[in-house]
Amino acid sequence: MKCLYYLAPTLDSTHHISDELRAVGITDGLLHVIAKDEAGLAEQRIPSSNYLETLDLLRDGFIGSAIGLIVGIVGASALRICAPFGPGTPRIVYLAAVAAATLFGAWEGGLTGIATENKKLAEFHHDIEAGLYLVLVYAPREREATVRWLVRARHPEAELAGIDRHFLNPFSPVKRRGAASHCGRIL
Predict the structure, then answer these.
(1) Contact between 33 and 158 (Cβ < 8 Å)
(2) How many CB atoms lie within 10 A of CB 173?
(3) 102 & 180 share domain
(4) CA angle 114, 120, 125 (to 5 degrees)
């Protein structure tokens, strides 16, 4: 499943795109719009994005847990060498220390992620702030060609701005397309 990023210039255009995608079987769970005007999306019953799409919660949580794991292993090794609890300390104590550091790292990373914009959306930040609508379509393999054809044929005002193998992989890159012109506007 790929995530196709389309930039649409108006709320009306976004509404028509979402209606036509629903008509070909793209459900609201596979269609999300990121916009500055969240109220307009709700008013038009257009599915807006969720926290996993707009915030860097997953990416920073994974990074935090990796850092916590490394710190936990170093800390547990230091505890084992220094033996402050005596030489007969069960190994479960060291494993618990590693687990606690890993979980703390994931928690801290998640808190950092809640406070930061998703890195995949950074390239589209100026477009969204300029009032454009970023339409994310999670296209199943068997419907990808239909989605691309439909938007290209019926909505020439919408630009295919990027492609991601799958949005929920926080480390996969977004291939940005046509960065110079945004929906017919030169920025």
Answers:
(1) no
(2) 12
(3) no
(4) 85
